[in-house]
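Folding Task

Wanted — backbone structure
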Amino acid sequence: MPKENPIPVLHAEGLTKRYGRREALSDVDLRIPAGRVVGLVGPNGAGKSTLLNLACGLLEPTSGSLRVLGSRPAASAAHLARVGFVAQNSPVYPSFSVADHLRLGAHLNPSWDQGMAGRRIAQVGLNPGQKAGRLSGGQRAQLALTIAAAKRPELLIFDEPAAALDPLARQEFLLNLMEFVAELGASAVLSSHLLGDIEQVCDYLIVLCDSRVQIAGDVPDLLAWHHRLVAPHGDLGGLPAGVEVVRVEQGTRHGSAMVRTDLPPSELPFRVEPVTLEELVLGYMSRASTPVARTGAAAGRGAR
């Protein structure tokens, strides 16, 4: 079995970005291992696009540090070639044909794989002579994905690439994304507010809310660490040490709490139920929106 690359694809320490007085990212610590397909989720305005633009070298941090594939983002032309980026709305040049885009990609990228690009364009049914401005949203997304992947990067970054697509086009886009990741042996970071997309393709999760990382880790581990405790009449007191309450919901006949703990379910009180990935994400987003969380008093923030 091959050893995991010890150099993280993204490593942030105290990463902060301000726009004037507004803080888009605040003291972010992250260490994402290589070989993961990462889902970056959070509400609008949480800082997702800011984090990805920092990772691509399009923005400079206000303070703290960020390294991508072991180097400062966009440190050199060679480093730029190791990262493929698809921005929101899959931007392309409207007056350029599909073939023009591929020629430009070949001109700008020394590791360009023309065979891959041509094969993928044919696979998704794009006409090389078609102007990009006349392509559908799904076709533009496929073109942008092909250009990013034909660079043969080590890291693919996607900022809400499928948000505007219809369900069928989005499904096709995600399938092609996973095919590229497998073919290249690349890592990927996918920002999305569509939890179904994250569940379908991602094995690592980052929840970003209120400019901070609320939780991060491999999806199987996160689901194993979190449980729902259900108690009659809402009596959820007397929890053992080492159990962190993330979210409480009180009903008329019973109450439940989503908790995070390393303890096995057999050592937890009350009835123990598993949580879904959607429940986990919503739990941390809900906690981040409370006044206590916004003032930083909530425990357990950040990457695990």
